[in-house]
Design brief:
By secondary structure, this protein is an alpha/beta fold.
């Protein structure tokens, strides 16, 4: 028992050290920013972290090749590619950058290194900044100091018994979040808060198949999907990743973010508009995770994409708001048994503007809406707009096939969850969902789908039918007033096809405190009369003070009488 109690404490201490390192690295790097804006500076810092990481991976592989095959093989690219390591020529290695860090032309040398990395590794084509450091005209001494700061990453990894891949991934994620916070409104273009991404991944459980994000930002959805798989002892090789990003600089961030974690993904040949330049026109994804731009206006002209195949069978999404264009795009990309989870502004649940209500009605009638979640406000760095999560399922039928998650038949049903009261404030303006919040929401959804029941049944089969039945009864889903409700299509129709959870879950039950009404009313009345008496006493005291100052009621009464006589 003593040994078991010591393990969590050790783990917790290590985590605390890790977070401290991320913060100290951010502080050190941020002090060096000078006149460079955060929107620009993130590409400087993250590019250098990326270069440091792939260089260290290269050096490790180089030593292994020399040891196993001999020095004559250390410059053969195929020996690096076979181990998913990028080959780096001499002038693209971190050691070369470190040696030349104090030179006046260090910015040129970094640009040359990044160009060489792209040239020698096709999978990184278009991923790295092009002549970025030279164009910014950075102070060489500040750039040198930043290089020295980033050079400490491997030292910290050794101290914390972490792989450098884990550590760099953590630093990368931390920096993306900090840059998003410091950039304010613009930060949301490349970053979705971690707690929201975690919730979506835990809800849809992307164990195997094709994962797609049509507006992938810096790739956070993909990273969290792989974390989910690894934390549940799954195999990362069982999933393939597809994505697209409109903004070129964010597209580069995404490619680097995946690369530092050893994740291979198809983000398209170039950055591009998902609606007009779909990089994956024939894709049918098993899982879709997305955070599209909120209420995107004028996303198409009146005569564009009117008869697009993606809205076949539905009214054409209006030009003034792209919310339903994103929904229809994702539905069109789902495989026969696919599931999608995505973030949208709350207005998407109830809007009837320009035919949006008709589209929503058709989606509901086609029984595609699996779950709706109303989230608390203040979750985003970029906006205070309240948001919700949509979960779309192409197949709500029960599934009992071997090797596939067992789920009950949910046809004609939709789960509504009101999570607006959840979350904790992390600072004055920002809130995040806690691990307990995420676990509660996820468990509710999985119980409703019948997954936990099936799992418990299998595990308890050997323990006897009676014990298994009791356990299953404890694990059954149940509506909770003010929190969750399993509604039918008829219920939704009766609410004019509005999907706002608050309409369905009702008000939370008020706990009975056991005090009789008469007793409670008597106490409240006594308190009220006491407060009224105190108010009278205060009024009299104020009148006396005004009287003493020459502003008594008599003075104003005389003035009022005089004005009335003149009238």
């Amino acid at each position: 028992m003593d040994a078991a109690s010591k393990k969590p404490a050790t783990k917790k201490a290590a985590k605390k050290t890790q977070v401290g390192f991320e913060e100290s690295l951010w502080d050190a790097a941020n002090k060096l920013r000078g006149s460079v804006e955060s929107a620009e500076y993130k590409h400087i810092v993250l590019s250098l972290i990326f270069l440091k990481f792939i260089s260290d991976k290269f050096e490790g592989r180089k030593k292994a090749i020399a040891s196993e095959y001999g020095d004559e093989y250390i410059d053969m690219v195929d020996f690096y590619a076979m181990d998913n390591v990028f080959y780096l020529p001499e002038d693209a290695r971190w050691s070369y950058i470190q040696i030349n860090a104090k030179q006046g032309d260090i910015a040129v040398k970094i640009d040359t290194a990044l160009h060489a990395v792209e040239k020698n590794n096709k999978s990184l084509a278009g991923a790295l900044p092009d002549n970025y450091f030279s164009r910014l005209g950075l102070d060489a001494s500040k750039l040198s100091a930043l290089i020295d700061t980033i050079n400490n990453i491997d030292t910290i990894a050794n101290q914390n018994e972490k792989t450098e891949e884990d550590l760099v991934g953590r630093v990368y994620e931390y920096f993306l979040g900090k840059f998003a916070a410091s950039e304010g409104k613009g930060g949301g273009e490349f970053y979705t808060p971690k707690s929201i991404v975690t919730l979506i991944a835990d809800m849809i459980e992307p164990f195997e198949g094709k994962i797609y994000d049509p507006c992938c930002g810096s790739g956070g959805m993909f990273v969290q999907s792989l974390k989910f798989i690894n934390s549940h002892n799954g195999n990362q090789k069982n999933v393939s990743i597809y994505g697209q990003e409109y903004t070129n600089t964010t597209y580069k961030l995404a490619k680097m973010n995946l690369a530092v974690r050893g994740i291979s993904g198809n983000l398209g040949d170039v950055a591009g508009d998902t609606f007009f330049k779909d990089q994956h026109p024939d894709l049918k994804a098993d899982y879709i995770m997305a955070n599209p731009p909120f209420n995107q206006k004028q996303w198409r002209a009146d005569n564009e994409l009117v008869d697009d195949a993606r809205w076949a069978g539905y009214p054409t999404p209006p030009t003034g708001n792209a919310n339903y264009a994103w929904i229809m795009h994702m539905i069109s990309k789902l495989s026969e048994h696919g599931t999608a989870g995505f973030v949208l502004a709350n207005g998407s649940m109830s809007s009837n503007t320009s035919g949006e209500g008709d589209i929503r009605q058709k989606i509901i009638e086609n029984d595609l809406v699996d779950c709706m979640i109303a989230l608390p406000g203040q979750l985003f760095y970029t906006t205070q707009i309240p948001v919700c999560l949509w979960f779309i399922s192409k197949d709500k039928r029960g599934n009992n096939e071997k090797g596939i998650l067992k789920r009950r038949d949910r046809q004609g049903e939709t789960l509504f969850i009101d999570a607006r009261e959840m979350g904790s404030m992390v600072n004055r303006t920002l809130k995040e969902l806690t691990n307990d919040d995420i676990a509660k929401i996820t468990e509710t959804y999985h119980l409703w789908r019948g997954e936990e029941l099936a799992t418990q049944s299998a595990e308890l089969e050997s323990a006897g039918k009676e014990q298994s039945a009791n356990k299953e009864q404890e694990q059954e889903y149940a509506d909770v007033a003010g929190y969750c409700k399993s509604a039918t299509l008829s219920d939704i129709k009766a609410n004019d096809y509005v999907l706002t959870p608050g309409r369905y879950v009702g008000a939370a039950d008020i706990a009975d405190d056991g005090i009789p009404f008469e007793t409670k009313m008597s106490e409240l009345s006594q308190t009220l009369y006491s407060q009224m008496n105190q108010a009278d006493e205060l009024d009299n005291a104020i009148r006396k003070n005004l009287q003493a100052l020459g502003y008594g009621e008599e003075r104003f009464a005389e003035k009022r009488d005089s004005e009335e006589r003149n009238d």
